Amino acid sequence: MTPDDADYTFAYLDEATKRMIRRAVLKAVAIPGYQTPFASREMPMPYGWGTGGVQLTAACLTPDDVLKVIDQGADDTTNAVSIRAFFAKVAGVATTESTREATIIQTRHRIPETPLTEDQIMVFQVPIPEPLRFLEPRETETRRMHALADYGLMQVRLYEDVARHGAVTLAYAYPVRVAGRYVMDPSPIPRFDNPKLDRSPALMLFGAGREQRIYALPPWTRVESLDFEDHPFEASKPDRPCALCGAEDSYLDEVIVDDAGGRMFVCSDTDHCANRRAAGAQASAP
Amino acid sequence: MTVSTAEMAQARVRADAEARAPLLEVAGLTRRYGARIGCADIGFDLWPGEVLGVVGESGSGKSTLLACLAGHLAPDAGRVLWRDRDGRARDVLAIPEPERRLLARTDWAFVRQNPRDGLRMGVSAGGNIGERLMAGGARHYGRIRGAAADWLARVEIDAGRIDDTPRAFSGGMQQRLQIARNLVSGPRLVLMDEPTGGLDVSVQARLLDLLRGLVREMGLSAIVVTHDLAVARLLAHRLMVMKDGRVVETGLTDQVLDDPQHAYTQLLVSSALRL
Ligand SMILES: Nc1ncnc2c1ncn2[C@@H]1O[C@H](COP(=O)(O)OP(=O)(O)O)[C@@H](O)[C@H]1O
Ligand SMILES: [Mg+2]
After folding, report:
1. Mean pLDDT throughout A56-68?
2. How far apart are CA B119 and CA A188, in angstroms?
3. Residue among B36, B112, B243 whose CB has most ligand 1 atoms within 8 A, to mutate
């Protein structure tokens, strides 16, 4: 599609808006982990459906990009399918379910199991960007805490968890320290995925549409999950292999398989699971 | 941990004393509320290891003075010099916000009259005590918890309450917890505003004994604001008597209370029941 025959601007957003978002992205990349304000636009979908991620994707896409969209690790959920279809229509870009083929991956809840490369951009849809929100509801105060790197209160929250439960119980949105400076909410990914943020070769962009914030991890940024020396961070997952491909090291979802309430644990990353099975992997006989 | 905190504090007191310089030098400190005077032209030095009592009836400007010293309130005039750990005199009112916040959670402590204002009511006793340590970079859970348990014992709270929130504590326990939370970092200057103010008389006595023990043991440098001369008598080495925002008399505690010079102090002393 060329500008001449387009009925709408490439990738839906007008050029001025994309420039504004790219400026915010540049600032976010320059200050890793810092929540940069941006003038979030109305999108043809409700807030909570990833409008922040969609705007980032729109501002990053070029006609040669190959887009992958996942929701809970799966390419075939309603949300993933409709966002992919949206960009296929408004940008005419190729889409894929393969992590390896993708140049831009928009996600909610997961980072693919397949290692990312320097040629890829991850775009995260973020519902609540402020990791201190539940400790301190006043935005004026949380901003000051970030500005002064005053993060004792966040550590108190972890202390309370260990005191009550013997371990930090946060399963999702487990807070991280970025490049030794800003504390950041990594979006609702499972803590299992936190290590994938650390020194990732891919650029990671986070967009919160309703809250009008963009933040970023430039490639190779140091990302540490907050913990205690004697209670070190652990990337937990169900302690069993995938029931379909037998993978021992991938994040699993529990799915209900029949009306009798039968359950099994399978890879949450559907592309990863399918690739393994195509290469001959299978679950060992029970 | 107990020993090391106390030892650290004492070593610091010695080092400060050796520097032969006051910890705090206050001059001409004035704060107005519109036309009304909060406090006016206050000046004094506080030496390492010294406890200064500030007494006077309600409305005499004690809290205003303390808030100005702590940087909670901006004075209209005057100067407060603070001797930092490196022996340098720093203008408290000109210290940038980030550094002042750092000081407020390390070298300074502020004990409020109402423990609810000085505690996190939704956080466990252990978390309340550990917060300053964690804010200062402590990342070893076992040691943080050990220090918390230790401080609970020092303020006479049962170790079994370490995971309870202060909501379930009596007023006296809450105040003792607030003190532990403040002293755990081994502060060089402790400011207290009516620390026994809201408590029953019997509970007050116990808290006073505890405070007196801690002051001695840790060699604390402190400013204690109180309208209760008995509290001043027990805790303070030196007294400053305030009336209508101004200092009317200063001197050694026993001197001021046993032989008051100013008519107002004489009135205060004679109207107190027994000292
Ligand atoms: N926020 C305020 N606004 C106006 N006046 C105040 C305020 N705080 C204190 N004052 C006045 O300043 C004077 C000193 O008050 P304060 O410092 O609270 O005295 P104290 O602690 O000795 O009771 C009083 O006249 C009081 O009414
Ligand atoms: Mg007062």
Report:
1. 97
2. 31
3. B36
Tell me the ipTM for this assembly. Answer: 0.87
What is the full DSSP assignment across A141-168? HHHHHHHTT--HHHHHHHHHHHHHHSS-
How do residues A152-183 score in pLDDT, each as one tens digit? 999 999 999 999 999 999 999 999 999 999 99
Higher pLDDT, B1 or A122: A122
Q: Does B98 touch chain A (CB under 8 A)?
A: yes
- Map chain B to HEC letters: CHHHHHHHHHHHHHHHHHCCCCCEEEEEEEEEECCEEEEEEEEEEECCCCEEEEECCCCCCHHHHHHHHHCCCCCCEEEEEEECCCCCEEEHHHCCHHHHHHHHCCCEEEECCCHHHHCCCCCCHHHHHHHHHHHCCCCCHHHHHHHHHHHHHHCCCCHHHCCCCHHHCCHHHHHHHHHHHHHCCCCCEEEEECCCCCCCHHHHHHHHHHHHHHHHHHCCCEEEEECCHHHHHHHCCEEEEEECCEEEEEEEHHHHHHCCCCHHHHHHHHHCCCC
Q: What is the pLDDT of residue A18?
A: 96
B97 vs A contacts (CB less than 8 Å): 148
Mean pLDDT of chain A: 93
Predicted model pTM: 0.87
Closest chain A residue to the Cα of B134, Cα to Cα: A152
pLDDT at B1: 44
Q: What gap in Å lies between CA A13 and CA A25, rounded to an integer?
A: 16
